[in-house]
Specification:
The complex is a heterodimer of chains A (135) and B (138). With 135 residues, chain A is α/β, with parallel strands linked by helices. Chain A has 5 helices and 5 strands; from the N terminus they run E-E-H-E-H-E-H-E-H-H. Chain A has helices spanning 25-42, 59-74, 86-95, 108-115, 117-134; strands at residues 8-11, 14-18, 46-50, 78-82, 103-105. The chains are: A alpha/beta (135), B alpha+beta (138).
């Protein structure tokens, strides 16, 4: 397990990662580097990370997800984390872990919809409105 | 806690990243045997993951001991994480959210304490650190 990275699939301008194994820390770090590499080499505009296979998200994995989102943002791509199990969400909140700026969706299909250009412009309008409200 | 051990404690080394994964898997297996709810299982395994990583990163490696325990009709899982590392000089500070001596988020100790029903810690500068956690079926 430690020698294999997590596979990254390319669908159009989106990269899809489905984490199906209990990630050890060094594998998580390598995934972060591999994704940055693939975003640049493919010009991907979106990254979907499916964590429905993850039984836990601890502070290390949480930080990895937030880092991937931040790195992809700098590289002009949007990351959406999808498929979080309810028990994982409850545990993460109690742990005090916030995913910060990371976008989330319930499943891959909704994640893809979030990344679709026409949806994105609508999202941007909503986000801008929400930001105005915060100020 | 007035508890009796319901199984032989299993000991695992905590020396590498893959050891942390093995500790998680053992705690998960025992949590299922103890019939913890899915949320309680997830919380306990997450706490174990944080503490095993602390043992590895801050304690310089050590050992985890995991066992099923019973208290009357209830069954629970107890896990102990022990290292011979530098210990924690200011425990109150270390149990504060967001405080970290290293590169982490500072949620390991304070956060994992919130995830379990029993949490105790025994540490002193130069004397290593032992953290014990337990969660019971409801």
């Amino acid at each position: 397990m430690s020698s294999d990275g997590v596979p990254i699939l390319k669908i159009g301008t989106t990269l899809l990662v489905s984490i199906q194994v209990d990630l050890q820390d060094d594998t998580a770090l390598r995934l972060q580097e591999d994704l940055a590499e693939r975003i640049t080499s493919t010009g991907a505009r979106g990254v979907i990370i499916d964590i429905s296979g993850l039984e836990i998200v601890d502070s290390f994995i949480g930080r990895m997800l937030a880092s991937v989102a931040a790195i992809s943002h700098v590289l002009d791509a949007t990351t959406v984390v999808v498929g979080m199990r309810p028990a994982v969400a409850i545990t993460m909140v109690e742990l005090g872990l916030s995913l910060g700026e990371v976008r989330t969706a319930l499943d891959v299909e909704r994640g893809l919809a979030l990344l679709a250009p026409e949806e994105r412009s609508a999202e941007d309008v909503l986000l801008a409105a929400a930001e105005r409200e915060e100020r | 806690m007035t508890t009796t051990t319901a199984s032989t404690a299993q000991r695992l080394p905590v020396r590498t990243d893959s050891d942390v994964v093995k500790v998680r898997q053992l705690v998960r297996t025992l949590a299922q045997q103890a019939r913890l709810s899915l949320v309680d299982q997830t919380k306990l395994v997450t706490a174990a993951s944080e503490l095993a990583r602390n043992t590895l990163v801050y304690g310089g490696g050590g050992e985890a001991e995991v066992e099923l325990v019973t208290d009357g009709a209830r069954t629970g899982v107890r896990a102990l994480f022990a290292d011979e590392g530098p210990g924690i000089p200011d425990l109150d500070l270390a149990l504060t959210d967001g405080w970290t001596s290293g590169s982490g988020l500072g949620l390991g100790l304070s956060g994992s304490r919130r995830l379990v029903q029993h949490f105790s810690i025994d540490t002193a500068p130069g004397a290593g650190t032992r953290v014990e956690i337990a969660t019971w079926s409801r």
